[in-house]
Every structure is written in C-alpha cells, then in structure tokens.
Specification:
Layout: H1 2-51, H2 56-84, H3 88-93, H4 102-135, H5 158-197, H6 206-236
Protein name: BTR1
InterPro entries: DUF1110
Biased composition (Basic and acidic residues): 29-38
C-alpha cells in the first residue's frame, strides 16, 4: 500500500516539475520576445534618424516663428483699424484736402493687410505641418499620412503630435479670423462706395453708413479674439516640452 502511495506522489512531483519547467520556458520566451521587439523598435528609430534630413526640426521651428510674425502683424493691423473706426461720425467727416476720407482709408488699408497676413499664417502653418509629417516618416518620400497616425504603435511621437494638434487648432482660429476680416472689408467697402460714388446722395444714407461702420468694428473685435487664440496656440506648438524634441 505504501509503495503505491509513494509512486503516486513521485508521479505528482514529476508532473509539477514539468509544469514549472514549462512555465519557466514560456516566461523566458516571452522575455526574449520583448527584447526582440525592443531591439526592432530601436533599429527603426535609428533608421528613421539616418533617413531624415538633419535639419527638419529646425526648419519646422523657423516656419512656425514666421507664422507667428504674420500673426503679430494681424494683431497690429486689427488694433489700428479698430482705433480708426472708434467714431463713425469722425470716419464720415475726416477728409484731407484732396477729398480722401482718411480714417476710412486707413482702416481699409489695415484690414486688407490683416487679410494678407492671415493668409500667410495659414500657408506657413500648413507648410510646418507637412515638414513635421515628412520628418516623422520612415523616409522623406513616405511621410506620415495624417496627424492621428503619429500615435501608431510602431512610433509614438507624442510631442510632435501635440505640437501639430495645437497648430491645427491655431489654423482653424485663423480661418475664423479671416472670415471676420473679409466681412469687415465688405462693410467698409460698401461705405467707401456710398461716399465716393453716390456723391450728394450719400447724405441720405448717413445712418446706414454709421451702422455699417459699427458692424465692421464688431467684426474686428471678434477677429481680435480669434487672432489672440491663434497666436497663443502657435506659440505653444514650439514651447517646451515640445521644444525639447521639435527643434
């Protein structure tokens, strides 16, 4: 009876030992698998760094800085136009010896320049995004297709993705500001037309012109808010911790 029990115990011990060995082998294989995956990831990173032009991050920074410069000009132009439009009565009465309505012309010139600078900002923002997507690709001829793909399991580019998300939001605010600027231009152009082409008949439209000038001023007030958001987001697209990698 004792011999049978001893045999069963020995069998159970042998089975347990085999199980432990199997688990150990499985764990070792899993560790080796992790090491292989880590090594492949490091290899891809090395290949990516070797394949990319060394200066793409510096180029990205420079393009975003130029975009910020365009945005600063918009802020200046919009502020100047709003100052010129503070008094609709003054706009309709301020004329130089040649008959030019000086405040209206000044506001129109500033708003037109603001429109050009907003367009320049949007162009720079798009260029910066494309630079980053090319730079984050395995090779320049195979850029990352879109910002969302920067969270791919193969290469998580957190800082770059965050920078481009902010730049994308900045571009959306810039587009909103551009629509507001275009609306103000139309209103100011209408007033200019009535003053210039209607001649003496413009006197009867004085209240309508004042209302259009006030509407243009309100549009520019909203533009100022959008431009402030645009510039803040664009600056955040290059500041630390993003600046630690995208530079």
């Amino acid at each position: 009876m004792l011999s049978h029990d001893t045999g069963r115990s020995t069998t159970r011990l042998g089975t347990s030992a085999h199980a432990r060995l199997a688990i150990s082998a499985s764990q070792q294989e899993e560790e080796r698998g992790k090491e292989r995956r880590t090594e492949r990831k490091k290899k891809r990173e090395r290949e990516r760094e070797m394949a990319q032009p060394a200066g793409w991050k510096a180029m990205y920074q420079q393009v975003v800085i130029e975009a910020d410069g365009s945005c600063a000009d918009v802020e200046h132009r919009v502020a100047a136009a709003r100052t010129a439009l503070e008094s609709p009565e003054a706009v309709l009465t301020s004329r130089d010896p040649t008959g030019v309505y000086t405040l209206l012309k000044s506001a129109l010139d500033d708003v037109e320049q603001a429109s050009d600078s907003l367009s320049a900002f949007i162009i720079h923002a798009v260029a910066a995004e494309r630079l980053a997507l090319h730079g984050c690709g395995v090779i320049p001829s195979q850029p990352v297709a879109r910002i969302a793909d920067l969270r791919d399991d193969h290469h998580d580019r957190h800082d770059e993705r965050l920078a481009l998300n902010r730049l994308e939001d900045a571009r959306d605010f810039a587009k909103r500001a551009l629509r507001g600027v275009d609306g103000a231009l139309k209103l100011l152009g209408s007033v200019q037309y009535m003053l210039r082409d209607l001649g003496a008949g413009a006197a009867g439209r004085r209240q309508a012109m004042k209302e259009q000038l006030q509407a243009a001023a309100r549009e520019l007030q909203l533009v100022a808010v959008s431009v402030c958001n645009t510039r803040s987001l664009a600056r955040m697209a290059t500041e630390p911790p993003i600046g630690n990698r995208v530079q």
